[in-house]
Amino acid sequence: STTTTTSTTTTTSTTTTTSTTTTTSTTTTTTTTTATTTTTTNTTTTTSTTTTTPTDTSVTVPPASVSTISEVNVTAAGTVVYVSNTAQVSTTAVGPVTAPTSAVTDVDTTLSTASQTTTVSTTTTQPQTTTMEAYMDSSVLPRVPRFSVSGGHAWKTWGSDRGGQWDVTDGTVESAISNIAAVNQRNSFDVVTDVEGFYESTFATLSTPKAHRASLGLVLRTPTLYIDADRIGVVAWPQGPGFGPTQSYQIKLTVTNAEGSSKTLSCGSSTQKSSVVCLISLNKDEWFSTTTDSVASVTAYIVGTSIVSESADIVLAATSSSADLTSYPDAWVELPEFPMVAGSTFNAELYAYATSEGGSEYALSTWIMDLYLVDDASFVDCSSSFYGISASTDGNKTRLVASMDSSVDAADVTGKVLIATLQLKLGTSFEASSSALLSTLFIDDMVSTSSNKMVNDKDAKFFSAGDFKTRGIIAVESAVDAGILSYIATSTSGTSDDAELVNLRVSDGESVSVVTKLVPSCHTTNSPTSGSSSIKCAEGSTLSTVSTDAVCTSTNSAIVNVAVDSCATEFAGTESMGGDVNVTVEYEDFTSFVTLRVWFLESVALSVSDFDLNAIASSCTDTVWQQATLSAIGNLTMDGGQSMVVNADLTPSVTFETDSEAVSIAESTVTGVSEGSATITALGASLPITVNATAVMATELHSIAINDIVALNDPSFGSFSTSYDLDVKAKAVHSLTQESDVASIFTYVLFSDGASQYVQDGVTGVALKPTILEVSSNATSKAPMEVVVPVGAGSYAGSDMLDLAWVLCDDTLTTGQVYVDVDLPAVVAVDVSIDNSEIYSAADSIAVSGLNVDQSAEVTVTLEFEDGSTRDFSSDSRLSLQSSHSAVEIDGNILSVADGVSSVVEDVEITASFGDYTNITASATISVDTYCGLQLSQQSYPACADCGSNKSTLYAFAGLEGGYQQLVVELSVESCLGSTYSYSLSSNVNVTIGNAEVINTVESPCTPLLDGTCVLADGELASTSLIGVSAGSSSIVVDWFGHSATTYVSVSDTALAVSAITIHSPSTALYGEVNDTSVMKLSIEFSDGSKLATVKTSSTTILFDQFLTFSSSYSDYISVSSTGTLTLHSNTPGSFAVDIEVADLTDSVSASVALFGNLYAACSSVDVDLGSPDTSPFPAVSVGDTFELPVYINTCDDVLTSFQIKVFFDSNIVVAVKDGHSTSGADWGYDIVYTYNDPVDMVQIIGSESNSDVGGTDVLLTTLTFEAVGTGASSFTAEVVDTVGVNGAILGTSGRYAIAGAGYIFVDVEWFPSSRRELASTFTTLGLLESSILKTPRQLAECTDVSCGCGLPELNGDTNGDCKFTVSDLDFLKRYIAGDILLSDLDDETYQLKQMNPDFTVDDTGSSTIDGVDINYILYGLAKMYRFLDTVEYTVSASNEVHLTVRLTDDTGTYVTDGSTTIVRAELGSLGPENISISEGTYTNQTQDGSMTLLASPTDEDGEFTLVFTTNTPLAGVAFALAIETLDSNGGGAD
After folding, report:
1. Angle at alpha carbon of residue 814, lines to 808 and 816, rounded to 5°
2. Total Cβ atoms within 10 A of residue 571
């Protein structure tokens, strides 16, 4: 044997001394030496390896100058020293390889290897001691499985393989261990195991630990912050070193003002390496000044770390406010002072100063203003907390018409009031300017709640920069760039490029691109952008890519260069070091950077498993040459060699080249071609190879059987570091535990020169124990040999089951054997199951009839083995099935009934056995079943549940056509083992009726023969029933496939008597529109026990009126027909319910149900419903109780914009609770004006909203509250004065009465007084609507044309000229003032303009002034709170007597005659009480301007309010003012 001892001394100096001693001795032992390798700085390390070389006296092994490399050492001078068994060859290594002064070694520096494997030793100077276990050294046997790395910056540590060897005699296989080194990378990589390229699998998918970046970039998008646009916009992104996967991070901002106060804001989080874009509010109003700007700083940081960005300054802009002013215009708009960009949407606040010229505050009720915008601006929307606003835009003008909501407290709209928020939008081409003209505002009207016009036709103001201006000025800027950020690009496959690169010193090395994003400025407003619910940057949040003009440079070209035109890194092959380097990006005035880390190939060495390739002795014409495996090993360093990845196996990353045709190279395999020498080069390093024509002998085959690779650990990298390494452990095994299991045979040939190589093509095998193991396929050039466990094999282990040979050119070069373990577990249990318990003969009547019965069965046999596995043996050739009775035949594993078997055979045992395979048996049983008989069952209709299956008597029953019960006959077939099958009376069955005059078919009765019989042979009874025809009896015979069954039926004229009735539905109430019908659901029991169960009275087969009667206690509410159809006519009053009774014809059996009638509003009439939609519409209450009355309307899905509804009731019984209404849960979400106690038996509700979108079939408008005050019954009705839709369309008929809303409520009574009981029909819905208690729907007069003033005083609010005064007139006026209706649209301009100007105001030209006062006047006139002035007449006599007469009209267009609800006063100017003597009317008090008097109330239908007085001095003239006060019918309100 040859023993090589290598001793290496390592020092911390720059010179490494290598001392090699080679000792040769002639021993013939075959022992294996195990050694422990320890590497310690400044310590001498000795590796001792003993190699056993086979002795073959028949072959002369020529001496070789270099055989195998056992170690590669790198000297300080840059020389690579190859140490072999026989010689030492030196070549110059590439690049400087001076040992680092302070190296960081991430992997083992000294590795134990077999003599055929090259090991690289690396010098270290840090104290580190690594002890490794030396594994079995079988010299020439390779290690299995192999480990490799797929993708990423990770490498197998060359020379780190341990274990993985096997014993060719006993099959012992060691676990294989290899070391994997990696640097930080963003994507995962795979560790792959295989055996010679087969059984390849991913052993592990690894990722380097996640970590934060080293620094944080920050771009401030909002350099100036405004209090009314309080949004800080930033872009923050991790940057700098930290090159692996990015750890999830959360970014917060710290904002610090000039006084040192700070606030922390959450910016956002990410799991990616990309940036975080955020827009957040500071919410620190106290930091802002109204006079001077201030500066604050913004800093970003990653939560939980010390990573902080550089700070950026933000200006807190001074923002003026009108809050501290003491003098205000009548109205003004506060425009934002923050700058905007074109296309922005923003809010402007509209204020009013409700204070008179004299300084007195008033409550602002109605206002009309016109907003004029420049061409490239538009009105979007408006909102208000106090007013309902109708906006109409025509070109540049938007008219705003506003009415105060009735729920608003007058104090809230007094003095300085925010009356609206306007949402405006700039066009996309709005020109940038620091003082851009936006708008003007004109005040048409501002009207107080007392209908005084406080402001008329006046320009409003705009507040900005601390002052009021006549025009609205805003600042508009152009969007600009705020900064740039840069990062490493994402590849097209979606994976992230790495910021950590490896430079293998080649010109086409890996490259990554630097992407630069442009961060836009951020202009926010105080309003969400269109289509969004949140405030966003007008410029958006998208960062655009800078594709050109960005200049990228490397801060250290000795590490990496950057392409000028593409900002992509490039390695030119001229770099000299590794380390961290910044790529600086410059664009416009902005600069950013990306940090890269480069690992540099400091030194490299090449290795070959056999660098003396010989010819292989064979009989082939062409020489066959040896092969060897090439490897490239390198040390990767960065930061000047401070960090190092040692002995990285770079083989998968390189291309080996040769300078000679003496060899060929395929990937990492070099093969001899012709005698000579060659130099192998890669990565600038070289390796000599000699090809020798002297043939070597193939001496032996060493083989291993493998069919699986088992992972033995689950590796993962630890905490974040510069680089990483870990061990991976796996084992190649073969497991042959079942028949048909397959394994591959991997074969290695040993040569007489001590070399070995894997061989595949030409490997053949002969099975020595073919009953245990067979050769399924010999090896080919594409796959190794495969062996298979044959069926019937037994267990066996050993190397004597296969003879292997390597055959080339029909010449067997060498032979060998392989250890195989066939371990088949023993059978421990057998299970036999049969899928059917009974089977029938194919000739049996049951089978012949087509019934779905089983005629065969399948046997399933399962074997259980001692290792817990199971296997289906149902089709196995070793299975033998035996039947215990000849009645059951077996075909394979299918059972059937033998021919000729016609009787029952029970429990036939089927036994499974397996011959020599196992002596365990098992069995299961099956039975043979046959036809046994027919069974007829018959059931009557109505059915009799207690009569069993043989109803033998049919009774007379008037409820069915034919007058008798019907009979349903069913056929059942019974087997002898107790199975029963239903069989349809189809065409396969003949049915014979013995007496067709007694019983026959319901449909198409058959004509009897002379003997009275009738044969039904066409399957007629499959779809119809039998019915009694006359009293008597008859047989029924059924013939079925040669068998028959007979039953007998009697028909009796005795009529069925009803014994019980049950009403299932309806149970509580009947719902629907007037005259809607419903059916009842009943159950009726009869004297013979039969029953009609849960049948509907709509049934067409049951004649209910022939055996039942139906009645209603009050058919005016709910009626019922003779066949049980219910019809709803009316709401039922109070708790009263209608009794619906169902009885038999003798009235001895009955049932009843109490039903409420509850009408629903009809779509066709746009009806209104009052009261509860559930059960009883109107409740029963007691005196003192309060109750709610919901008001619903069915708009038939049209949009409802206005409504006027009057609810009438008996005020002696109930009263409306003033202001007790509720809109909770209402569908109508707009203002409603309520009129109470005018008169006391009515509540009126008025709603008007032009922008309404409300509509539906059950729209809840409001809920009224009432109190019971007297005993009795009160009617409830509703007059629907008008309902209006979009654009003034009238929904339904004006002045109609609600149908669903008419009814009664009971107070402490159950029904009307008994004396009126017979008049119940009067109190139905219809009776109520026809009764005289209703107010008759009115027209203003018989004259219905505006030309005659509608037959009434002209001034009555009829704005739309239809001779009615309703809410449609209010809707018309609103739309006219808003500009939706033009003057040209009026039918009678003179008449309608007067109607629209009830306060008589005119402009300077004498034309009517129609404004917000008129809207209030019309609304309050409808609500009975205002009166219309008709005439004012006065006369003055010669004796100074003044006679003043005033006439008023109300909402009905008639003269006001009631002085208790309408009070008229006249203030006489310049006349004190001493100056006047009143003869008609009353003096009340002295005023600042004169005397207040009260006019006398009218005394007749002329409606004259009069004042007669005499002055004690001659009159030149008297000035007077009229004041009208209205009260409700109870004298309250003072409205």
Report:
1. 125
2. 22
Q: Which of 299, 300, 305 lies closest to 247 in space, CA to CA?
A: 305
Structure tokens at 598: 């480069």
pLDDT at 1336 over 80: no
CA distance 1329 to 1297: 7
The backbone region for 683, taken as left when phi is positive above 0, alpha when psi lies in -120 to 50, beta otherwise, is left
Q: Please, are residues 1179 and 1119 in contact by the beta-carbon 8 Å criterion?
A: no
Helix (H) or strand (E) holding 1418: helix 1412-1422
Q: What is the pLDDT of residue 1411?
A: 85
Nearest by Cα to 1525 from 1430, 1440, 1416, 1448: 1448
State how far the alpha carbon of 995 is from the alpha carbons of 362, 576, 658, 941, 1037, in Å. Answer: 103, 119, 112, 20, 11
Judge whether residue 1436 has pLDDT over 60: yes
1134, 1306 Cβ separation under 8 angstroms: yes
Closest-CA residue to 1486 (of 1466, 1500, 1472, 1501): 1472
Burial state string for 883-902 with b = 16 or more CB within 10 A and e = fewer than 16: bebebbeeeebebbbeeebe
| Radius of gyration of the chain measured on its C-alpha atoms | 54
Are 513 and 567 a contacting pair, CB within 8 Å? yes
Task: State the residue for tokens 């013995």.
Answer: 994
pTM: 0.65
Tokens of 417: 């009031």
What the block records as the tokens of 215 is 């620094």
Share of the chain above pLDDT 70, in %: 87
Distance CA 757, CA 754 (A): 10
With beta carbons less than 8 A apart as the criterion, state whether 745 and 779 touch.
yes
DSSP-assigned letters across all residues of 965-1026: -EEEEEEEEEETTS-EEEE---TTEEEEES-TTTEEESSSPPPP-TTS-EEE-SSGGGT--E
Q: What is the pLDDT of residues 865-923, one digit of tens each?
A: 998 999 999 999 899 999 999 999 999 999 999 999 999 999 999 999 999 889 999 99
Measured CA to CA in angstroms, residue 1071 lies from 410, 790, 1077, 1162 at distances of: 44, 81, 9, 12
642 close to 103: Cβ distance less than 8 angstroms: yes
Mean pLDDT of 1037-1064: 94
Element at 1239 (helix H, strand E): none
Distance from C-alpha of 35 to C-alpha of 5, rounded to nearest angstrom: 12
The C-alpha atoms of residue 688 and residue 90 are separated, in whole angstroms, by 10
Q: How many helices (H) and strands (E) does the chain have?
A: 5, 114
Q: Following DSSP, what letter does each residue of 112-138 receive, concatenated?
A: ---TTS--B-----S---EEEPPPP--
Mind listing the pLDDT tens digit for each residue in 493-532? 445 678 889 999 877 778 888 899 999 999 988 887 666 6
Q: Do the Cβ atoms of 32 and 141 come closer than 8 Å?
A: no
